[in-house]
Design goal:
This protein is α/β, with parallel strands linked by helices and 337 residues long. The chain has 15 helices and 13 strands. Helix 1 crosses helix 2. The longest helix has 21 residues.
C-alpha cells in the first residue's frame, strides 16, 4: 500500500503536538483534557477563553504556554479603569535632538504573539471591545491607521464566573470570536497533593521551548489541508441547527430554553478544531467523533439562553448534550466525499 504523500508531515505534526502537551504537563497538574483543547485551539488559529474561580492556575497555564512556544508574550491585567489605548497603544509627541516635534506611535501590549488577557471581564465593555478587531482581523486601527499584528497571533483570556462581584459580561460579538470557551474545574484530592508537592518543594517545575512561530504556522497550514467528508460537515451543521429555537431541526430544550443558537462561526470552529484533533491522532480525515468531542467547548459560549432558561438556571452544556443525542439518533447520508 502506497504511503500518503503527507504522512511524514502528519507524523511530525503529531510529535510536535505531543511535545507541547508534555511540556505543559510538566508544570500544570491534571486538566489533561483542558490542555489538549488549548493546544488544539492554538493550532487551529483560534483564541481561547478560560473560565474559573481565582487560584485554579489559568494564568499559570498561559504563562507556561508562552515558555513552551518561542513567541513574544505580553500580559494585560484588565481592571475597571483600563482604557482602550492602554491595550492598543497611542500616538505620542516626541522631540528629536534638533528640537523638532513629531507624532510617534507607541504600540500597546496587544502587539505580541501570545496575549494573556487576564480577568477580561473585570474591564468595562468599551475596553473589552478594543480586542475585537485584533482577534478577528489580526490588526488594530489607531488614529485612522491600520497596523498588522505579527503571526501567529493568539489571545488567551481568563475570566471569573459572571456571578462574582465586580465583573462585566462579555458582549456576545466578542464571545463569538473565541474558538473555545473552556471551564477550569477545581482539582481533586490527588491533584491538590501533587500541586502542593510541586509548588512548595525546593525546585519549581519549568517547561522547555519545543516550537517556534514558523513551526506553528506550518502546522496550521497542514491542518487546513485535512479533508472533511460531506457527511461529517452535515453532522456538524445539524448540530448547530439543533440549537436554534426557530428552526425545524431544533430540539425541544432549545425551543424552551434558548433565545439564539450557535452562529456559523460555531460550525467553522467545529471543523477547524476537528482537523487539528484528527492530525494529533495521526489521521488525515475528520471523523464524527472529532466533532462530537469538540461540541461543548466550541459551542457553549455561542448559545444565548432565553429568559425562561436563565430563570431555570439552565446550562448550555446540557442543551448541547441533548442536541448531540438527538443528532446521533437521526440517520445521516451514506459516508462519502
Amino acid at each position: 500500500m502506497t504511503e500518503h504523500p503527507l504522512a511524514p508531515e502528519v507524523a511530525e505534526f503529531r510529535e510536535t503536538f505531543a511535545a507541547i502537551r508534555r511540556e505543559l504537563g510538566r508544570v500544570i497538574v491534571g486538566h489533561a483534557e483542558l490542555l489538549d483543547l488549548v493546544v488544539i485551539a492554538l493550532l487551529a488559529g483560534g483564541h481561547v477563553l478560560l473560565e474559573g474561580v481565582p487560584g485554579l492556575g489559568k494564568t499559570l497555564l498561559v504563562r507556561t504556554l508562552a515558555q513552551v512556544l518561542e513567541l513574544r508574550f505580553s500580559r494585560i491585567q484588565f481592571t475597571p479603569d483600563l482604557m482602550p489605548a492602554d491595550i492598543l497603544g497611542t500616538n505620542l509627541i516626541v522631540q528629536d535632538d534638533t528640537g523638532r516635534r513629531r507624532f510617534e506611535f507607541q504600540p500597546g501590549p496587544v502587539f505580541a504573539q501570545i496575549v494573556l488577557a487576564d480577568e477580561i471581564n473585570r474591564a468595562t465593555p468599551k475596553t473589552q471591545s478594543a480586542l475585537l478587531e485584533a482577534m478577528q482581523e489580526h490588526a488594530v486601527s489607531v488614529a485612522g491607521v491600520s497596523r498588522r499584528l505579527d503571526e501567529p497571533f493568539f489571545v488567551l483570556a481568563t475570566q471569573n464566573p459572571i456571578e462574582m462581584e465586580g465583573t462585566y459580561p462579555l458582549p456576545e460579538a466578542q464571545l463569538d470570536r473565541f474558538l473555545f470557551k473552556l471551564r477550569v474545574a477545581f482539582p481533586g484530592l490527588d491533584e491538590l497533593r501533587e500541586i502542593a508537592d510541586r509548588t512548595t518543594g525546593p525546585e519549581e517545575p519549568a517547561a522547555r521551548r519545543v516550537a517556534d512561530g514558523p513551526t506553528l504556522l506550518g502546522m496550521q497550514g497542514l491542518a487546513r489541508q485535512v479533508p472533511v467528508a460531506r457527511y461529517v460537515q452535515e453532522y456538524a451543521a445539524r448540530l448547530v441547527l439543533a440549537t436554534h429555537p426557530d428552526r425545524p431541526e431544533a430540539i425541544d430544550a432549545a425551543r424552551r430554553l434558548v433565545r439564539y443558537g450557535a452562529s456559523p462561526r460555531g460550525l467553522q470552529a467545529l471543523l477547524r478544531a476537528g482537523k487539528v484533533r484528527a492530525l494529533a491522532d495521526g489521521r488525515l480525515n475528520v471523523a464524527i467523533e472529532d466533532v462530537r468531542a469538540l461540541a461543548l467547548p466550541a459551542l457553549r459560549h455561542r448559545i444565548i439562553l432565553s429568559f425562561e432558561g436563565e430563570a431555570e438556571g439552565a446550562d448550555p452544556d446540557d442543551v448541547l448534550r441533548r442536541a448531540i443525542a438527538q443528532v446521533d439518533a437521526r440517520p445521516l447520508p451514506a459516508a462519502g466525499p
